[in-house]
C-alpha cells in the first residue's frame, strides 16, 4: 500500500446508501426522482486537484491533515464516484473536472521536471484520472506552468479530452483545444439524451504564463466564448448544456481590468442563455449549490464548486422531462440540485493506489534526500510580521544569481530582491536539510527574472505590498490575525500571504519601516539603501519571480520595467542547487533585519 493509504480500503470504502450518507450524500427527493417520462442526469465534478493522488503531504512526509479533518486525493475521489455510479444504476452519468491538475505537489513537479513526461514517463495524474473515468476536463491556468510541450504530452496520455473554448490561436482566433464534447445517452424506447459540455479556462494565463504562451495562444473572456459555443451546442441538438469553468463564482480579478474577468462563472450564468449548470473551479472555495438568474431568460442556473485537492466531489442532479408537442419531442429541465461529498469518509481506491504506488515512493525518496545542513533552525511562522532569516535566504539566493549574470552597465547597479512568505509552516531544521525542506519554503513553480527600477518605483512597490496589513492604532500587542491579510478591492476575502512581498539588498541592506497606523499609500518610511535615503531617480536591479513580473498580484512597475535577466531558471531548483553546492545554510552570511512594523514610528508588538 502507498504511504498515504495504510488503512484497508475494503474496511472503510463507501458502499451502498449508508456509506454514501456518511460522505454527506442526500438521496434525491421523491418529488425530483425520475418517474414516468423523466430522466435524471447525474454530473460528478471535481476541480483543482493540483497533483494530489494520495492523501499525503510530501512537505511534511506524513499523511495530509488540516484543522478541519479533510483528506485529499484522486484515489479517494474514485471511491466516492464509483459509489455514486453504483447507487445510480442505469441512470446517465457524466464525470468532469474543472482544471488545475498537473501542478501543485512534488509528485506533479517530479514528472514535469526531474523525470519529465516529455522524455517518456507517464504522468501520475494521467494514470489516476484515466482510472476514475472522466468524460472531460477543463484546462486550468496551472496546466500551462511547465510549457506547451508538457501540456500537450499530458493531453496525449489522457483517455478524455482537455477542453478550452477560450484558449485560441492568435491568428485564427479558433480554439487550439477542443471547445466542447457532446455526450449521447441511449435511454431506451427510442429516447436519447444529448448533453453538451463546454470547457472554459482563465484569461489570466496570458499574464501568469506569458513566457510559455505569448505568441502561441490567446485567452479571451469566458462570457465572450460561451456566447459563441453555447448557441452552437444548442444548434447541434443538445438537450442540456453543462459548463466546466476554471474561473471563480464571485466576480473579481487579481489583475484588475487589464484582461477579461478572472472569476467570471457568475457572469456566464447571468449573461449567456441556455446554460443549465456550471462546475466552478480556480477559487479554491466550496460552493455546494448556488443559483444565478440569467438576465435574458429569467432561468435559474445552478453553480457548484467542490473543495480543492479532491477534498470534495460535487454531485449535480438534473431531472429532465420529455415533452411532446408539435414536431419532435424534447427534453425540458424540470429540476436542478447539487450536493458535495466528503473524501474524509472513504478509503482510497485500490486500483488508483496501485497504479501510482511506484511513482509515489520514488518522489518520497527524492524529497527526503539530504542536500545540506542548516547552522540553526529557521522558521517562516512569523515572516508575515517580521523580517526572518528564512525569507532573507530566498532573497539572497535570487539576488546572488542575478548579480552573477549581469553584464555591462547593469552589473554596476545595486541588486535587490523580492520574496513572499508562501507557507508559514516552512522551516529549516538545525542540522540536515532535505529537498522537501527547501521545496516547502518555495511551493510554486516560478522562474527567476530581474528588472531595472528606480527608487521611486521601489517605494511605490512597497506601498502596494503594505496593503497586506490592516490599519491599527497604538503599538499593541496585537494577534497576527488582527494586522495581516487585509481585504482589498481585488482580494475582498483578505490579501493572501503570497501577495506580501518584502525586499532585501544583496551587497548592502535596503531598510524601511511599514507604518500600519497610517493609511494605505503612505505607509513606507525611512527607505534607505546602505544607510542612505533612497533617491527617486536612483537605479536598482530588482530580482522578481515570473508570476510577479507578468502581472500576478497587480504590483506596480515590474511588468513594464526593462528586463535585464530571464534565464528561465526555476527558483525552487535554484534554492536546492545552492544548498547542494554550498552545503551549509548559515544566516550569518545573509540575514539582516531590513524592515519592521511600526505605529507612528514606534515598533509594534505582534503576538503569535
Would you spell out the secondary-structure blueprint of this structure?
Blueprint: H1 9-12, H2 16-22, E1 38-46, E2 56-57, E3 62-63, H3 74-88, E4 93-97, H4 106-114, H5 124-132, E5 136-138, H6 148-157, E6 162-163, E7 180-188, E8 191-200, H7 205-208, H8 210-213, H9 222-235, E9 240-245, H10 265-271, E10 277-280, E11 287-293, E12 300-305, E13 312-323, E14 330-342, H11 350-367, E15 370-374, E16 378-379, H12 389-405, E17 415-419, E18 427-428, E19 431-434, H13 435-441, E20 448-454, H14 455-465, E21 478-479, E22 502-505, E23 510-515, E24 524-529, E25 532-533, E26 539-545, H15 546-549, E27 563-565, H16 571-582, E28 584-585, E29 595-599, E30 602-603, E31 606-607
Parallel strand pairs: 1-4, 4-5, 5-6, 8-9, 9-10, 10-12, 15-28, 17-26, 21-31, 23-29
Antiparallel strand pairs: 1-13, 2-3, 7-8, 11-12, 13-14, 15-19, 16-18, 17-22, 20-26, 20-27, 23-24, 24-25, 29-30
Amino acid at each position: 500500500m502507498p504511504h498515504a493509504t495504510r488503512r484497508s480500503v475494503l474496511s472503510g470504502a463507501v458502499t451502498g446508501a449508508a456509506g454514501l450518507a456518511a460522505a454527506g450524500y442526500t438521496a434525491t427527493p421523491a418529488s425530483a426522482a425520475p418517474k414516468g417520462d423523466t430522466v435524471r442526469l447525474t454530473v460528478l465534478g471535481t476541480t483543482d486537484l493540483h497533483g494530489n493522488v494520495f492523501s499525503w503531504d510530501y512537505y511534511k512526509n506524513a499523511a495530509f491533515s488540516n484543522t478541519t479533518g479533510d483528506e485529499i486525493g484522486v484515489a479517494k475521489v474514485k471511491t466516492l464516484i464509483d459509489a455514486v455510479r453504483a447507487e445510480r444504476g442505469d441512470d446517465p452519468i457524466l464525470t468532469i473536472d474543472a482544471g488545475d491538475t498537473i501542478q501543485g505537489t512534488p509528485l506533479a513537479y517530479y514528472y514535469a521536471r526531474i523525470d519529465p513526461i516529455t522524455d517518456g514517463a507517464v504522468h501520475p495524474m494521467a494514470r489516476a484520472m484515466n482510472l476514475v473515468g472522466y468524460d472531460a476536463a477543463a484546462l486550468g491556468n496551472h496546466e500551462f506552468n511547465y510549457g506547451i510541450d508538457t501540456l500537450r504530452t499530458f493531453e496525449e496520455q489522457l483517455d478524455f479530452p482537455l477542453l478550452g473554448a477560450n484558449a485560441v490561436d492568435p491568428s485564427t482566433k479558433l480554439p487550439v483545444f477542443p471547445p466542447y464534447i457532446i455526450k449521447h445517452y441511449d435511454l431506451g424506447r427510442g429516447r436519447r439524451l444529448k448533453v453538451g459540455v463546454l470547457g472554459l479556462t482563465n484569461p489570466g494565463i496570458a499574464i501568469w504564463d506569458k513566457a510559455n504562451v505569448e505568441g502561441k495562444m490567446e485567452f479571451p473572456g469566458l462570457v465572450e466564448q460561451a456566447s459563441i459555443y453555447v448557441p452552437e451546442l444548442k444548434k447541434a441538438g443538445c438537450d442540456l448544456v453543462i459548463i466546466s469553468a476554471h474561473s471563480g463564482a464571485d466576480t473579481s480579478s487579481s489583475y484588475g481590468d487589464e484582461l477579461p474577468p478572472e472569476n467570471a462563472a457568475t457572469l456566464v450564468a447571468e449573461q449567456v442563455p441556455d446554460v443549465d449548470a456550471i462546475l466552478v473551479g480556480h477559487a479554491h472555495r466550496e460552493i455546494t449549490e448556488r443559483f444565478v438568474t440569467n438576465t435574458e431568460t429569467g432561468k435559474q442556473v445552478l453553480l457548484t464548486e467542490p473543495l480543492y485537492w479532491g477534498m470534495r466531489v460535487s454531485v449535480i442532479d438534473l431531472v429532465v422531462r420529455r415533452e411532446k408537442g408539435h414536431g419532435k419531442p424534447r427534453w425540458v429541465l424540470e429540476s436542478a440540485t447539487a450536493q458535495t461529498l466528503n473524501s474524509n469518509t472513504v478509503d482510497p481506491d485500490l486500483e488508483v493506489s496501485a497504479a501510482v504506488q511506484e511513482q509515489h515512493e520514488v518522489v518520497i525518496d527524492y524529497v527526503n534526500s539530504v542536500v545540506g545542513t542548516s547552522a540553526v533552525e529557521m522558521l517562516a511562522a512569523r515572516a508575515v510580521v517580521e523580517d526572518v532569516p528564512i525569507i532573507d535566504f530566498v532573497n539572497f539566493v535570487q539576488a546572488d544569481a542575478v548579480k552573477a549574470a549581469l553584464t555591462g552597465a547593469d552589473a554596476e547597479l545595486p541588486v535587490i530582491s523580492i520574496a513572499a512568505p508562501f507557507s508559514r509552516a516552512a522551516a529549516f531544521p538545525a542540522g540536515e536539510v532535505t529537498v522537501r525542506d527547501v521545496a516547502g519554503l518555495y511551493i510554486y513553480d516560478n522562474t527567476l527574472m530581474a528588472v531595472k527600477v528606480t527608487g521611486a518605483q521601489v517605494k511605490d512597490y512597497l506601498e502596494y505590498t503594505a496593503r497586506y496589513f490592516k490599519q491599527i492604532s497604538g503599538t499593541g500587542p496585537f494577534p497576527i490575525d488582527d494586522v495581516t491579510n487585509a481585504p482589498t478591492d481585488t482580494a475582498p476575502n483578505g490579501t493572501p500571504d503570497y501577495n506580501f512581498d518584502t525586499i532585501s539588498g544583496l551587497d548592502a541592506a535596503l531598510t524601511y519601516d511599514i507604518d500600519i497606523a497610517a493609511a494605505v499609500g503612505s505607509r513606507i518610511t525611512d527607505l534607505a539603501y546602505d544607510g542612505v535615503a533612497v533617491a527617486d531617480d536612483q537605479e536598482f536591479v530588482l530580482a522578481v519571480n515570473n508570476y510577479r513580473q507578468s502581472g500576478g498580484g497587480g504590483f506596480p512597475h515590474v511588468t513594464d520595467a526593462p528586463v535585464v535577466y530571464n534565464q528561465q531558471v526555476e527558483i525552487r531548483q535554484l534554492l536546492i542547487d545552492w544548498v547542494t553546492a554550498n552545503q551549509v545554510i548559515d544566516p550569518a552570511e545573509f540575514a539582516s533585519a531590513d524592515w519592521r512594523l511600526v505605529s507612528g514610528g514606534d515598533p509594534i508588538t505582534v503576538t503569535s
